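A further point concerns the way the authors explain their paired sequence and structure data. For illustration, here is how one protein appears when written out as sequence plus structure tokens:
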Amino acid sequence: MNGQPVMLNCDLIESIEENGHTVITLTTGSAVVVCERMPEIEARIVAFKRKIYGPREPSV
């Protein structure tokens, strides 16, 4: 919320809640308040996972 960029390990995200602010709770128990809304966070996670693992191969 202070305008500084932060990178979180998306594999440690336990939950994301929106109640005026977006709060990301990690499996470590830490919570981070961010400016982005859930759909943007989801899109960023999906884009990151596709970048790392590639697109899903079609089933044959």
